[in-house]
Amino acid sequence: MSVPMPRKISVSRIGFMLCCFLLPALIGTFASFSIPAPLVDALHQQAALDAVLTAASPSARQAAIAALPDTVDADTAAIVTNGTGPLSARVAAATANMRRETLAQARTAAYKIRLMVITLSVLSAIFAITLMGPDRRG
């Protein structure tokens, strides 16, 4: 009968296993910086819509309306530029539309980031477990 030899601790394998767990953590950290992107976009769009209502003159209002397709998304701009009701009602409807779209974008971004971090964490853990498994030397 052979007595199993005690397993040596491999510092490089432990370091590699730590890297397998740190990689998804770092990716998650950096990905978290993209989470506020829909909010920042909404703030810029809201400023453009507010500029339409707070324009000092009719010509400034027309310029602000003309600039909407470049500063807000197409369907939000179309609500203001192609609408037939009072301007304040059209801007209110465009604001509500923009907020719905921003919420949908934020939820989509958050889901994708979570999915990416979870997937990479699980794959890294499987990889680390495989590397830390028993030696195949025999």
Structure commentary:
- Helix 1 (11-31) runs antiparallel to helix 5 (87-132) and helix 3 (58-71) packs antiparallel against helix 4.
- The longest helix has 46 residues, at 87-132.
- 77% of the residues lie in helices and 0% in strands.
- With 138 residues, it is an all-alpha fold.
Give a quick rundown of the structure.
This protein is 77% helix and 0% strand. With 138 residues, it is mostly helical. Helix 2 (37-53) runs antiparallel to helix 3 (58-71), helix 2 (37-53) packs antiparallel against helix 5 (87-132) and helix 4 runs antiparallel to helix 5 (87-132).
Count the beta strands. 0
Spell out the helices and strands N to C.
HHHHH
Spans where pLDDT lies below 50 across 5 or more residues = none
Helix segment count?
5
Shape: rod-shaped
Tell me the span between the first and last alpha carbons. 15 Å
Mean pLDDT, all residues: 84
- Structure class: mainly alpha
Quaternary structure state of the chains depicted: single chain
Largest sheet descriptor = none
Content of β-strand: under 5%
Helix content: over 70%
Radius of gyration: 27 Å
